[in-house]
Queue: 3 jobs
Job 1
Amino acid sequence: MALLVVIYLAFISLGLPDGVLGSIWPVMQQSLDLPFWSAGLIGATSSIGTVVSALMSYRMTSRFGTGKVTLASVTMTAVALLGFSFASSLPMLMLWAVPLGLGAGSVDSALNNYVALHYEARHMNWLHSFWGLGASAGPAVMGFALSLQLGYRSGYQILSLMQTVLVFALIASLSLWVDPKGKREGVHLEDHQKGSLRHKALPFALLSFFFYCALEISTGLWAVSYLVQVKQLLPSDAAFYGSLFFLGITVGRMASGFISYRLGNIEMIFLGLFLCLISIIALFFASLIFAGLSLLLLGLGCAPIFPSLIHQTPRSFGPGVSQRIIGLQMASAYIGSTLTPPLFGLVGSFVGLQWMPLLQGSILVLLVSSITILVLLTRDKEYPI
């Protein structure tokens, strides 16, 4: 139980920096006299670091173990946030974005694999709901610092201090990183024979994560603009409904942990996909408040998909290769979340945001197709964990 608490705290830590740059950028941009578009360079630098570290997660975890990888990753994040508080130019911000990204990818892959191997599906869903708490808390901490006239630099320092507290908690918990059944942490030698990286379903597993993150991130970035421009909602009302999307994901994942007592991973995934379909149709045809509320339903639909796919990975491909595959899945997810928002923005600039639900629907069709093929190709054999 003590280790689970540490893992949940680590996922709050993982989410803390994710929404901070966007929430504070208008203030930082003015303070540092930077062009508005330079936030994209900082975000892209961090994303590249995240992809690289996700791809390296298997080697790092195999050599050092999940506990030490998590400790190193959170330490890098704490240092990076402190660096952001002192940076005074775009090159310095991009420099500190490197350890911020490197710290995110490895810990994401390592923790997801550890929980997928050693805990039930409910813990995977609850784990990702704690990420949502962290992603919500980061901007809130920054807003609190600004409300006290402390400035954004102090906000980054507070976040760095929060991460540092977790670093000490991780140091104290290193001896806890063992299999709950009493085995030493990691994959045993005989487990290396349980699974294959040459499985024909692997490309569809990677595509599933790419399309899922494409749907989630593009919705989070452009849904508010869609409600204002197309549905004619007031910006303040649209911002409220936009927050319901993330609330739906967080609450939905908490609820999914309890629903998983009754439903398996595959049933949870297709239930989520069905809710996504209904919500996208409602977003396109409904008006005013009903269009806004459809974002809450979309968040609830998205909630179980990502954690259930992760939890199913060692069962579909084998525990011996799950860390490698989850690292590839995380990299694919980050690539999807990096490439799709600019694509939505480009299409919106030329044809208007009124077609956004059709783009979402297209991505959803691709997501359903890739997951369906993945399930069909892996249904004959499920590895025991």
Job 2
Amino acid sequence: MTQAEIQIPRKLTSQLLHLAQISPNFEVCGLIGSKNGLPTRCYPIENAAKLPQQHFLLDAGQQIAAMTKMRELGENIFAIYHSHPSSPALPSSHDLELDAYPDAVYLIISLNTKGILEMRGFKIHQKTAMEIPLTMSDN
């Protein structure tokens, strides 16, 4: 079963890639809110993992604050994003363990690509990842 492609606004894509670029040694992470199923806003959250070079863990307090803000704005969780400073944009075994939000898209940004940033999307359910094609939109 293939998943329909997801459109991500160019402005949001640029913001995510910029966040990854300014933190080349540590995984950046956060949430993306949506309205009517369309991604609208990025919520960067501090990486609270013990080894932020290799893993991500959303800071609990900041995650709660971001989710509260989303509710106030009438948004839903669209995606959880994080970067891989030195590995491909594929879910690691650690990422597969974190499938707490089966409806969310997991966006992974890789800096491991000779000057070209790569971003890929996945649905993770029962520790299995299924890639979802991403396209950029101009809205």
Job 3
Amino acid sequence: MRIRTRRSGPAGFGALLAAGTLVVTGCSSSSSSTSSSAGSSAIPTPSAVASLASLLPADVKASGKLVVATDASYAPNEFKDANGNIVGMDVDMAKAVAQTLGLTAEVQNADFTSIIPGITANKYQLGMSSFTDTKDREATVDMVTYFSAGTSTAVKAGNPANVDPNDLCGKKVAVQTGTTQADEITNVINPACQKAGKPTVPNGGDKFDLQTDVTQALVAGRDDVMLADSPVVDYAVQQTGGQLEKIGSTTDTAPYGIVVAKNSPLTKAVQGAVTSLMADGVYKSILTKWGVQAGSVNQSVINGASS
């Protein structure tokens, strides 16, 4: 299960992506880049649904807005563009949910670990920051599911290193420092390789502080394969214009949840808004804009964690 943790150095990856360009150089000083329309495509404006707006708590309705907290460090879900604006899939979803409820979204950047305490203290109405829905979190807040994510595998187009996503023994694997993928190499993959009498992943994986550097190491051929959360891999494949490809299936999938105060009437309103966005096509448009439609789900539920 992917439990979102804070990533190091968020600004570098966000700034590169925000410019619509991901540099894919090797060790030389020359460079090439590709452009993407992600982050700029128009999304249909959802109509307000009166029956859902009627579910809102009186104070939220009176304010006319939803204060939404996000840790803008995790492209393409939430990050800062070149102008310092908070953008991403979760940001567009937050705005669409608010519009469906007849409100506007005020998205605030916050440290990831402070968001749930901020929800319980009524500092924020919603938390949208790639939160995995877990039983532990459901004990203190409600989670409205809207996306599915796990670990995905990417290689250079054509898979020149002949990587088997189910057998990474002996392969040079790029991962971001501090992620569950880095932990998986240490705690799961390499012990399994040793038990099978196979060479382990060198260095316990090549670890980089920035996801940009992970991607660039793969494109430049310094590593054979990279592991990352599924929407991050999907977006990297899109941004590199066909230089990378995704192989195998997404593993350890679990739902992302919108964080809402426990037992708040806002929970059902938000779930209804997400359901409405799924029905009217806005949800699909948002995921397609950011290249993460592989994580789409057909139903939003309240507190849908399995573990």
